[in-house]
């Protein structure tokens, strides 16, 4: 029903794009007479400008890695570093390599002190030098030439380098016996598939995995993964020529004449597209890293499967980095309200610095931080009496249905909060107004009901997956009679294994 109601709107977008979207819609498939949506400059940059350079560099990396694996597998990580260093030197110049090495040496020297907070503060201050003037212009002046990708590669390589150096420094602080060699930091940082664009793999995982051997049947899985990414790229390219879901939100005059269904669907599909983009971009690089026997961070969880703020992330590598070094370190077990508030504020503070402080990022961080804390506040409130006893007395299915109602509101909060960063504040306000005010009650009730049914399906799928992962839970203790209890008052009771407990 949603697709049918949106079809006229997309046809309207196709017609009006010729007149009003000249900057975002360019000639595409000549033989089919289709224009192409080029509003997402990141996607266009990856698969037009970057395509030849990336394929050439990664192909060389795979070739040299394969030769080294056959001749001298013990030096494989060293070959990765040398090839990555030469590739960066060739593309950006020796002054850029010198700048990167200076940051690595600085943070390595600080890590020798083994003071955790000092390493963290030093890393954040170093990262801030790429986000504020005059430090940005001064450091950018070290890059040579007029290479068209110079600015993108400069900020990407420097930003990810600082995050990797911070991971190395913090892991060095945790090491009890001695220090890691600076050569290990250089191997970790100059691994070419991760150097410019990530994802970030924490140093402890990279250090263990870089010299491992490939598992059985892994090559078959890598081939399937590569083919699936190629298929997704083709599908996205088809959508760019038929559904202009990225250009349409830029024309607010057109959106005001669209139906409520069209706006709601457009907001949802914008998030789905962003998830697909992240999955493909990181997936292509991860496929190469799997050839090197690494186990990189998994693709982000699909927006359709998200109904809690704790799992909302579009870069699992950054998310794992933040959770390991900030969120879990400060939040503990995430049960105390004050500790959770401090942990989330610090986590989103680092995220804002990583993304670059601006109005859209600050608003996005505020609402997502509030949503994460509000989940804990709600859980704490309903764990009090009489709510806890009331839930224990009701059937499990009923409890799941009640929770799904709250998760439905969560789902659309996640959608509205994240289109702030993906599109604009005006588009998010327009969608919220149509969904909650102007579209009430028909559109609001129907959309929430469909979302509620979707969440129920997801919960059931997760419940079945939990049973597959743990098919043999501990059986409940048999009830004891009064005589048995009196005869053996000190009998030891079986202690449940916490690892056997199943989350809903």
Total beta strands? 2
Helix content range: 55-70%
Continuous helix count: 21
Regions with little confidence, pLDDT below 50 for 5+ residues: 1-18, 481-504
The amount of beta strand, in percent, is under 5%
Helical/strand content category: mainly alpha
Q: What characterizes the major β-sheet? A: 2 strands, antiparallel
The pLDDT mean sits at: 82
Strands of the biggest beta sheet: in what spatial order?
Answer: 1-2
Task: Categorize the overall geometry.
Answer: globular
List SSEs in N-to-C order.
HEEHHHHHHHHHHHHHHHHHHHH
Q: What separation lies between the terminal Cα atoms?
A: 31 Å
Radius of gyration: 26 Å
Q: What do you see in this structure?
A:
By secondary structure, the protein is mainly α. Among the domains are: 43-209, no CATH class; 304-469, no CATH class. The protein has 21 helices and 2 strands. A two-stranded antiparallel ribbon has the order 1-2. Helix 2 runs parallel beside helix 13. It is globular. The protein starts with a helix and ends in a 17-residue tail after the last helix. Residues 1-18 and 481-504 have low confidence and may be disordered. Keywords: Endoplasmic reticulum, Membrane, Signal, Transmembrane, Transmembrane helix. Residues 1-17 form the signal peptide.
Can you summarize this structure?
It is a multi-pass membrane protein. With 504 residues, the chain is an all-alpha fold.
Chain-wise SSE layout:
Elements: H1 2-20, E1 25-27, E2 35-37, H2 41-71, H3 76-92, H4 94-111, H5 116-128, H6 135-140, H7 150-174, H8 182-189, H9 192-195, H10 203-209, H11 218-240, H12 252-256, H13 260-291, H14 316-331, H15 337-355, H16 359-382, H17 387-393, H18 396-422, H19 425-438, H20 442-469, H21 482-487
Antiparallel strand pairs: 1-2
Helix pairs in contact: 1-13, 2-3, 2-13, 3-4, 3-8, 4-5, 4-7, 5-7, 11-13, 13-18, 13-19, 14-15, 15-16, 16-18, 18-19, 18-20
Main location: endoplasmic reticulum
GO molecular function, one term: acyltransferase activity
Pfam family, one: MBOAT
